[in-house]
Amino acid sequence: MSEGIEIKNYVSYDDYIKHQKSKADYGTLLREKLLGEFWEPNCAGFRLNFKPYEEILSTCKNALCIGARVGEEVFVLRELGLDAIGIDLVDNPPLVIKGDCHDLSFEGENCDFIFSNIFDHVLYPDKFISEIERVVKPGGYCLLHLSVNVRDDAHAANVLLNSDYVVSLFKKNITVLENQKLNQPEWPEYWTLLIKFNE
Fold it and tell me: What averages of pLDDT result for each successive group of 10 residues across the chain (199 residues)?
């Protein structure tokens, strides 16, 4: 255990990948619900989540959503005019392509805006943050929704004890614009962390 986080043990990285994919893989009930009855409510939630950042998003051309599952957040960012794409262990074309959050298949300094709410599913937090830092453009933004001190998700790969631990992982010159409780009923457990990468 590192200060600020408890990492779960897996037999191997392949075991970790298999476990994470099983939550919303093709044929799972959760995936069917995400593409069906949960789709519009989740999109409505993301519209609410992104509304405070409309001014920031208006300055961005593209966006990357890491761990996007079926892509509701990607869909909403496209509604806002961004060239957005999501990555997840299981794809959902055309909104989400297959990818690994620890090894992003994107060129460096390529993204204006990065969003993710899967920090609790990350096995190597330092690698996850370093990949975000690699692909974001100077002057770009990263918005993370963090589950803090939540222990009831069987698919979580870690238990984050405080958001300051995440801030400490960033090595580039950043400004923390928000580090506070999200305070939205759809995601009552989330903490919001908004980072600006200084030019």
Answer: 87 97 95 96 94 97 98 98 98 97 96 98 98 98 95 94 97 97 76 96
CA 117, CA 143: separation in Å to the nearest integer? 9
Strand 190-197, strand 136-147: pairing: antiparallel
Name which of 63, 80, 190, 69 is nearest 132 in CA terms: 63
Place of tokens 């990948």: 17
Contacts of 24 (CB under 8 A, 6+ apart): 30, 31, 34, 69, 70, 90
E-strand stretches of 59-135: 62-66, 83-88, 96-98, 111-116
Q: Do the beta carbons of residue 160 and residue 137 sit within 8 Å?
A: no
Q: What three-state secondary structure class fits 199?
A: coil
Q: Single out the residue of 30, 12, 4, 3 nearest to residue 123, CA to CA.
A: 12
